[in-house]
Write a structure and sequence with these properties.
384 residues; Beta-lactamase; 14 strands; 18% strand
């Protein structure tokens, strides 16, 4: 294996793409073969981006939430075909927005939302932050906004389309996280800790910054300039949470590169961690990464994903590679994963047993444009 070209490219991201700090790992057959960091987690105080750096996963959180829900499916607690209203009754009688020649009207939905609709982002649930019912929960709970309370309130808003008829990236995985809470009887973060983080040794991953980790928390940036070393800091989080007790299944976790790499390695290893701890069965992972979209929903996904996700479909909450040539990809068909605002990127390839994780914390760039380059350099490096 020769990682010289990959390392040089990662280091060039600092100056050429104005990214203040990056970290990347690669594992093959559940064995770490590469780990590299460059730049700063805090530009002003010159704190290096390192294995200890804690950052926001944003939508890379979704893989963990989906893992938890898939575990409940394996245990017979839920099924993909279950109506959402069996767990959250507020979703039994839904209205839906419909476009007509005379404009948009709201009428009763003709299709019920299933758990599969949540996984595949085809539920139509909007989850808009300024919905009156949601704002009332925030007010009534003095800003605590527990996850299930917010998700119940979101049911008061009409759906954006009939469930199953379109793909719309958004709120569905937050609702899926609420289902995990209701079925398990635990808060989402507590369930994740017991069933994913502790078994895999992910001691720095949680919805809240773990006590003692404060000095490792990265600052988020927009418009970093490598020549001047200056950036527009946006603090330590986007304003995504509804309140202090809202655990966002779609994007709320904090983590570090080694932690999330352990998670990705387990998925590439058929669901088993480095010491044999099993978080999912191989058959479940195969179901997870099977494309679930066709027709208009698949067209919607193609528009949403753009050229960076060309050749990919969408499984149970993850992109999944269907056509290697359309994405100029060196990875195997069935490679799956996702990314996150500020630039996190995970590649899981069960066939080749390769796991790749890349992290940065800069949102002013078009980070998705170099994810494919990183992926291909990683594969080429392991073959050289």
């Amino acid at each position: 294996m020769n990682f010289d070209k990959l390392t040089a490219y990662l280091d060039s991201i600092y100056a050429e793409k104005n990214i203040p700090g990056v970290g990347m790992t690669i594992a093959v057959d559940n064995n770490p073969v590469y780990e590299h960091y460059y730049g700063w987690s805090n530009v002003e105080e010159k704190v290096p981006f390192s294995p200890e750096t804690i950052f926001n996963l944003y939508s890379a959180t979704k893989l963990v939430t989906c893992t938890c829900a898939l575990q409940l499916i394996e245990r017979g607690k839920i099924r993909l075909t279950d109506p959402l209203y069996e767990y959250i009754p507020e979703y039994k009688h839904q209205n839906v927005k419909v476009k007509t020649d005379g404009g948009e009207v709201v009428r009763e939905a003709g299709t019920i939302i299933t758990l599969e609709h949540l996984f595949t982002m085809t539920s139509g649930i909007s989850g808009r932050r300024d919905a009156p019912a949601i704002l009332k929960v925030v007010e009534d709970t003095q800003g605590r906004a527990p996850t299930v309370d917010i998700v119940r309130a979101a049911a008061a808003e009409p759906l954006n389309f009939e469930p199953g008829s379109h793909f719309q990236y958004g709120y569905s995985h937050d609702v899926l996280g609420a289902v995990v809470e209701i079925v398990s009887g635990q808060r989402l973060g507590a369930y994740m800790k017991e069933h994913v983080f502790d078994p895999l040794g992910m001691g720095s991953t949680a919805f809240e910054l773990i006590e003692g980790k404060e000095r490792y928390r990265t600052v988020l940036y927009n418009n970093f300039n490598a020549e001047t070393g200056k950036a527009e800091s946006i603090g330590q989080a986007f304003k995504l949470r509804f309140g202090s007790e809202y655990e966002m299944g779609g994007g709320g976790l904090l983590s570090c590169v080694p932690d999330y790499s352990r998670f990705a390695r387990a998925l590439a290893n058929g669901g088993a961690g480095e010491s044999g701890e099993r978080i999912l069965n191989p058959e479940t992972i195969d179901d997870w990464r099977t494309n679930r979209l066709s027709g208009e929903p698949l067209e919607d996904f193609a528009v949403f994903g753009g050229w960076s996700k060309a050749g990919y479909g969408y499984g149970l909450g993850v992109r999944t590679l269907m056509d290697r040539e359309r994405n100029n990809s060196l990875s195997e068909t069935g490679e799956f994963g996702w990314d996150g605002a500020q630039g996190c990127y995970v590649v899981v390839d069960p066939k080749a047993r390769v796991a790749i994780f890349y992290a940065q914390q800069e949102g002013g760039s078009q980070w998705w444009t170099w994810h494919g380059t990183l992926r291909n350099l990683a594969y080429a490096s392991t073959w050289s």
